[in-house]
Design brief:
Layout lengths: L2 E5 L3 H13 L3 E5 L2 H10 L4 E5 L7 H11 L4 E6 L6 H6 L4 E4 L4 H12 L7
Parallel strand pairs: 1-2, 1-3, 3-4, 4-5
Length: 123
């Protein structure tokens, strides 16, 4: 089963996304700020980590840099409301993908399938 962390300070958004992803068969944890996300990251093994770019305590970009420098195997996807996040930016900061708000559960499911294609991962 694919294990996911959704970190977003918009509590309603994170909780709704969790409910929908669980319904699709994923195991999902949530965090509502960067500090809590870091605690969850350090105590769990996630396959995917979806990080809001703009969170209190630690931003999604700060956490993404930490994850890439730590050698964690999770795929990291930034969720943002800013149009400045694009494919070129994603390559520069070495994240695996990005989604621009507003997003739907299907967007998350689609990027998970895209990034796991050929890896033999299953839900």
């Amino acid at each position: 089963m694919i294990k996911i962390l959704v970190a977003d300070d918009e509590i309603h958004f994170a909780d709704l996304l969790k409910v929908n992803l669980v319904h699709l068969g994923y195991e999902v944890d949530t965090a509502y700020d960067g500090k809590i996300a870091l605690e969850r990251i350090n105590s769990n093994n996630y396959d995917f980590i979806f990080l809001d770019e703009n969170m209190p305590e630690l931003t999604g970009l700060e956490l993404a840099r930490y994850l890439k420098n730590s050698g964690a195997g999770a795929k990291v996807v930034i969720i943002t409301g800013y149009e400045g996040i694009n494919e070129g930016f994603a390559r520069t900061v070495k994240i695996d993908g990005y989604l621009t708000k507003p997003i739907k559960t299907e967007d998350i499911d689609k990027i998970i399938r895209k990034l796991t294609k050929g890896q033999g991962a299953d839900k």
